[in-house]
Specification:
8 helices, 14% strand, 4-stranded mixed beta sheet, alpha+beta, Glutaredoxin, Peroxidase, domain 1, 2 domains, elongated
Length: 180
C-alpha cells in the first residue's frame, strides 16, 4: 500500500492545488473525488478499466457515464489524465490523500472511532471533546462498530492509535504473561 500512496501523492497534491483556487470550494471537489474513488473501487469497474483492449477514449466514456453526478471540466480533465497515465485505479488512494490535505488546510483531522457497541451522538461528541484536547486539533469522527473489540473503543487519528478496547487489554495481558 505504501507504494500506491507514493504514486498517488503527486496526483492528490495537484488536485488539491486546483481545488483550492476553484470558487466551487474544497467540499465540492472532495465530494467529486470521493464519488470517483467509490466508482473506481467497484470490482466490475476495476476489471473494465484494466482491460488493455479498451481504448483510452472508450474507458473515459464508460467511466464518466457510470457517475451519478456530472463533473466540472477540470475534474473531467483530471480523470482523462489518470486514464492516459493508467492511474485511474489509484483514485481511492488519491481521495484519501486529498482528504488529508483538506483536513490539514482546515486545521482538522479525521478520527476513526471503532467501538464494540453502537454509540449515541452524545457519547461520540463527549469522546471527541476529550480527544480534541489530547490531539490539539478539531476532529471529524467516523464511527464504526466492531463487536470483536468486546468492549471499549479504538481511536485512530492520523498515525496515532489510542486503543482502550478489552481486546487490546487482553492482548497486552497475554503478552505480559508469555514474557514471564
Amino acid at each position: 500500500m505504501a507504494e500506491l500512496s507514493t504514486v498517488a501523492r503527486p496526483y492528490a497534491e495537484a488536485l488539491f492545488a486546483s481545488a483550492k483556487n476553484d470558487p466551487a470550494g474544497l467540499a465540492a471537489w472532495s465530494d467529486a473525488v470521493n464519488e470517483l474513488a467509490q466508482l473506481s473501487n467497484m470490482k466490475d469497474v476495476r476489471e473494465a478499466m484494466s482491460d488493455p483492449q479498451l481504448e483510452r477514449k472508450t474507458k473515459e466514456d464508460v467511466f464518466l457515464g457510470l457517475l451519478k453526478t456530472s463533473l466540472s471540466q477540470p475534474m473531467r480533465n483530471f480523470v482523462d489524465l489518470l486514464i492516459e497515465n493508467d492511474r485511474l485505479l489509484l483514485l481511492p488512494q488519491i481521495a484519501e490523500q486529498f482528504e488529508a490535505l483538506r483536513n490539514r488546510n482546515d486545521g482538522t483531522a479525521q478520527a476513526e472511532i471503532t467501538s464494540a457497541f453502537e454509540m449515541s451522538e452524545a457519547q461520540v461528541q463527549e469522546l471527541i471533546a476529550g480527544l480534541e484536547k489530547k490531539f490539539g486539533v478539531k476532529l471529524k469522527p467516523v464511527v464504526t462498530v466492531d463487536p470483536s473489540l468486546i468492549g471499549g473503543v479504538r481511536v485512530t487519528v492520523g498515525d496515532q492509535v489510542l486503543d482502550t478496547s478489552v481486546q487490546a487489554q487482553l492482548s497486552r495481558l497475554r503478552d505480559t504473561l508469555a514474557a514471564h
